[in-house]
Amino acid sequence: MSVPFQKYHGTGNDFLIIHADEYVPDRGALAERECDREDGVGADGILYLALEERFRPPRVIMTLVQPDGATAPMCGNGARCAADWAMKKTGSDSVMIDTQAGTLRADREGDEITIEMGTPTFDPEEVPVRADEPVFEEEIDGLEVTMVNTGVPHAVAFVDDVDDVDLATVAPPIRYGDEFPAGTNVTIASPDGDGGFDQRSYERGVEAETDSCGTGAVAIAVVARRLGLTDADPVSVNPPGGELLVSFNDRGNATLTGPVEHEFDGEVAVESPTEL
C-alpha cells in the first residue's frame, strides 16, 4: 500500500507534502524512514495538509512531523511550502495556515511567498528556558546565546564568520542543554558585509544542520534588532539555501519572505490495515 506525496522546498528547506486524508497509520515511523537522505526520499520533515476551501481566504491545517518522528508546532519555510501547495489548488494568492503555534496568513508576491510569523518572545517561560529573566548574550557551552521563541525555541549566537564554526560539534550540547526543558534549535549568524546576516541552523527534530530555517532567520532578525546590530526593515538573512527577508509590522509581528519550489511527485509505502 502506498500514498502519494509532493516534494517541495523553501530555500533548500525540503518537505514531503501528504494530504491529511491519506491513510498513514504511523506518521512518526514514516517520517523517520522517508526523511532519511540515504535510505528514504530525503527531507527535513513531512507536512500533512488538510485544505478547507469554503473559507475566504482558504484555510490549510498543517501538521509537521520531523525526521525524529516528533511533531513541531511551527516551521516558517514549511508553512510557505504549505501555502504554495494550497494556492495552486485553489487559485488564491492568499491563504490562512493553521499551525500548532497559531493561525498565520500567507500571501503570494510575484515568485515569492510571505508568511506571518506571529510575535516573537524572549519570555523565559514561553521560550522555554530555565531562567528568571530573558537570556541575552549569555555563554552556554562555548557560545554567547540569546534565547527567543519564534514559533519554536532558538538559541541565537552572533559570530565573526559562520563558516568558521564546526556547527555539528558545537550545537548538540546546547540543543540538549539542561537549561532547555523542550530542547532548542541552535542558530548562528554573522554580518554578510551588505547589511544583512549569514545564517546556519542546527534544527531540533532534524538533529542536523539544514540548508535553511525560517524560524531561525526570524530569530536572527529579532535578536539583531534587539541587540542594536541592525535597524533595517526588511532584514536580509542568508542561509546556505538562499535569501530570506524578515520584516516587522507596527505590532511587532514578523513576516518571512522567500521563494518556494515544487520539486517532484512520488509515492511512499505505508502499512495496509490488514498488516496492522
Automatic annotation (TrEMBL):
GO terms for cellular component: cytosol. It catalyses: (2S,6S)-2,6-diaminopimelate = meso-2,6-diaminopimelate. One of its GO terms (molecular function) is diaminopimelate epimerase activity. Substrate binds at N13, Q66, G76, N77, N185, E203, R204, G214, T215. It is found in: Cytoplasm. Keywords: Amino-acid biosynthesis, Cytoplasm, Isomerase, Lysine biosynthesis. Belongs to the diaminopimelate epimerase family. This is Diaminopimelate epimerase. It comes from Natronolimnohabitans innermongolicus JCM 12255. The gene is dapF.
